[in-house]
TrEMBL record, chain A:
Protein's UniProt keywords contain Ligase: no
Cofactor: FAD
Gene Ontology, cellular component aspect: cytoplasm
Pfam assignment, any one: Pyr_redox_2
FAD/NAD(P)-binding domain residues: 10-307
Name of the protein in question: NAD(P)/FAD-dependent oxidoreductase
Keywords from the UniProt entry: FAD, Flavoprotein, Oxidoreductase
Single GO term (MF): oxidoreductase activity, acting on NAD(P)H
UniProtKB/TrEMBL annotation, chain B:
Pfam family, one: Fer4_13
Origin species: Streptomyces muensis
Name assigned to this protein: Ferredoxin
């Protein structure tokens, strides 16, 4: 096979993959770029999947897909291979094996295959009592939205971002909502700690959700009371939102560190193999916030920043002049749960104490601003409010957090 | 160039106000307020705000004077 211009494979059609491609095009890299996606959709706005209700129109799916479309650049150097899985990779020979039976030879590879939902039910989506679902892709969301439009009762396992947004959404659709959190005391406990988690649990309860923790949640994980078997389609919806698993299986056998995603350096380079890069939810990189620690983040802006950087690093590896700099990502996320805006910045996980700067945890809707400290140093901040009474104070806090 | 916020998509999450406080802010009711025009020196902040929006509600109208 004769090859002129280099060929760049990007595995994953999510925002990290798209941004890597955009960065390459911006650097005017003279190469053929191919994006592989296992869904049938081009890049869409994943956070938007659980952000709002869609009217039950004739074709609700189309509405969601249209609403959440992310405009990519049209460029003849870029090819989309959708509905195509990369089954295995030989990173020594630089060849991918595709679900279509074809092979694909690359000169540089960007791994942006993301994560998939963790689930407790193996194989089949149905248990004896429920229709089990998870939410990751656009098709999942389309299914769940149309179910919520008709479902009277929905059970949600988990209390993270997806679970909380889903609960809020299901209530808006008029469903009866039960949330089950077996391991923790409330939402976001692993990030914000027990006191805030419990306050958020109370907030969710005040908004009409049956929020169960510990053993009482465990008992309901699969409802043993629902003994008269209904037909499959009538089974109540049970959505598992209990975390995620990095999609690394296709990379096995190549000597990479796949212990939690794909380990990369501060430029998104996979150290074991030349010409291989990773970005997005799957990339585990040196945490700019702590020394000698690695971090892996599953947020939209992280996927954008690491995707951009991976693209620029590929360009630079091919001899193009591109502005590469070590990852300097500032984690800042927001969600809304029953009208309560929740903003989190920095890395509260690494704190050893917290300090309430404004407000009262028993009245979250009146505004609560919290500072997270490790020793004397602020490492994170969180702000919860129905309005934005303390927003300017929060932004001031973040300025000193960014400067650290 | 001017900033345009799609008010139907915007849910007032406020991440833009963190990225580019010179152009975006949440008022005390939590509603987003913003200035359409910006100084060229703030373009990096504006682009950061556009990327940060979880609803992808912010656009740059490159043709607007």
């Amino acid at each position: 096979m004769t090859r002129g211009e280099p060929c760049i494979g990007i595995v994953g059609a999510g925002i990290a993959g798209l941004r890597a491609a955009n960065a390459l095009l911006k650097c005017k890299v003279d190469a053929r770029i191919v994006i592989f996606g296992d869904e049938t959709h081009r890049t869409y706005n994943r956070p938007g999947l659980t952000k709002k209700r869609y009217p039950s129109s004739d074709a609700p799916g189309t509405t969601i897909a249209e609403d959440l479309k992310v405009n990519g650049v049209e460029n003849k150097a870029l090819t989309w291979r959708l509905d195509t899985r990369v089954e295995t990779a030989d990173l020594r020979e630089k060849v991918l094996r595709l679900s279509t039976g074809e092979t694909f030879a690359y000169d540089a590879l960007v791994i942006a295959s993301g994560v998939r939902p963790r689930t407790s039910v193996e194989g089949d989506n149905e248990c004896e009592f429920h229709a089990h679902r998870t939410l990751r892709g656009l098709d999942d969301a389309q299914h769940i939205h149309s179910e919520l439009q008709t479902s009277k009762k929905v059970t949600i396992a988990g209390a993270g971002f997806v679970a909380c947004e889903l609960a809020s959404l299901a209530k808006e659709y008029g469903c009866e909502v039960v949330m089950l959190e077996t391991r923790r005391h409330g939402p976001f406990e692993s990030i914000l700690g027990r006191r805030i988690a419990m306050a958020l649990g109370r907030w969710i309860t005040q908004n009409g959700v049956t929020f169960l923790t510990g053993d009482s949640a465990k008992e309901l994980l699969c409802d043993p009371g629902a003994s008269n078997l209904e037909s499959s389609s009538d089974r109540p919806l049970f959505i598992e939102a209990i975390g995620s698993v990095p999609n690394v299986e296709w990379l096995r056998g190549n000597g990479l560190d796949l212990s939690d995603g794909v380990r990369v350096d501060a430029y998104m380079r996979v150290p074991e193999r030349e010409g291989v890069f990773a970005a997005g939810d799957i990339a585990r990189y040196p945490d700019p916030w702590t020394t000698e620690d690695l971090t892996r983040m599953e947020f939209w802006k992280n996927a954008i920043d690491t995707g951009d950087l991976a693209g620029r690093s590929v360009a630079s590896s091919l001899g193009y002049d591109s502005k590469t700099s070590r990852i300097g990502y500032f984690p800042s996320i927001a969600t809304e749960v029953f009208g309560l805006r929740i903003q989190i910045a920095g890395n509260p996980k690494t704190s050893d104490s917290m300090e309430i700067v404004r407000g009262d945890l028993d009245q979250l809707d009146c505004g609560v601003l919290v500072k997270f400290l490790r020793g004397e140093v602020m490492v994170g901040a969180a702000y919860m409010d129905k309005g934005a009474r303390f927003n300017s104070v929060y932004i001031e806090l973040l300025k000193s957090l960014k400067a650290h | 160039m001017k900033i345009f916020v799609d008010r139907i998509k915007c849910q007032n999450h406020g991440l833009c106000a963190i990225s580019a406080p010179a152009n975006f802010e949440l008022d005390t009711d939590g509603e987003l307020q913003y200035h359409e025009s910006f100084d060229e020196e703030h373009i990096d902040d504006i682009e950061d705000a556009i990327d940060s929006c979880p609803l992808q509600a912010i656009l740059l109208n490159r043709d607007a004077a």
